[in-house]
Amino acid sequence: MTAAGDARAGDVGGPPRHVSVLLREVLEHLAPALDGVYIDGTFGLGGYTRAILASGARVVAIDRDPTAIAGGAGLVADAAGRLTLSEGRFGELDEIAEMVGFDAVDGVVLDIGVSSMQLDEAERGFSFRFDGPLDMRMGGDGPSAADIVNAMEPRDLARIFSVLGEEKRAAALARAIAEDRKKTPFLRTLEFAGLCERVVGKRQSDPIHPATRAFQALRIYVNRELDELGDALAAAERILKPGGRLVVVSFHSLEDRIVKRFLAERSEARAGGSRHLPEQSIAPPTFSLVGKGPVLPGVDEIRTNPRARSAKLRAAIRTEAPARPFDPAAAGVPSLPNFDQERSR
After folding, report:
1. What is the pLDDT of residue 4?
2. Where are the beta strands (DSSP E) in 135-179?
3. Distance between CA atoms of 100 and 118, rounded to whole angstroms?
4. pTM for the model
5. HSE of 44 in the Cβ direction (CA atoms, 13 Å)?
6. For the chain, which end, N or C, has fewer CB atoms within 10 Å of the first or last residue's CB respectively?
């Protein structure tokens, strides 16, 4: 994500109003049917859910953010029984669907990453556009970004900034954090952004703010976003009916790599290798791909909604083959240092 083209507009001052990305393309690939059941694993402000409901389908919408759940109450009322809104992690979408009465569904849609609503609220601590607590927790539980920055070992911080932010100055940034926090802990977003500006500096060839990559890395780590994505893909495989559709919109290379690898491996019909050796048998494919590559936003959408510029949509159709065990490493979910909040005190 830290390549300039991968940076999300909201991280650096994007539009204040949320607009669903690739909405028309999502609906085309999800193809909601009257009375079908669909899971919106990342409800946010309900853009995809609202469009799916308009087709006459039923929706199980999930969000880990209590603010999003509260904000969706009106839509639940308007849907007259066709929308179930559940607070939870989208990595557990199959369990949540089963708890509300659906053991198989016709489609799953995921829009990965932070929402404009979260970026625009200073008190959530996601953005360096505002001064707020250095928090970044989507669900409000677990260690905050400040907990991580003020207590994690420098070598572990450097790995997080390097892997999740692709920050070239990761080691220098981690050393500066360790030095400065001896005097005063980092508690506010602008305090931490100021350190990033001082250490990373502004590169003329780089259009994004010096703090963008560090903020991105911390947000992904605090919320286990890549682990959640892997879990959600596996959960979708378990809950989709044969013929059901999976549609995923991602916004940076780390996310898209996981989706691409998962779908490529799950749709593989023949083992690779030398044609001179006996062909190996592999498990039957659980998905068939829709299209050969990702769907990208058009010029008009990027012009009216800059947040869309790094979006990629990938879609697949569930086969009748049984779901398989999920290997996060094989799908490209990175191994990261654990943070033990109790030991850090």
Report:
1. 33
2. none
3. 27
4. 0.88
5. 24
6. C
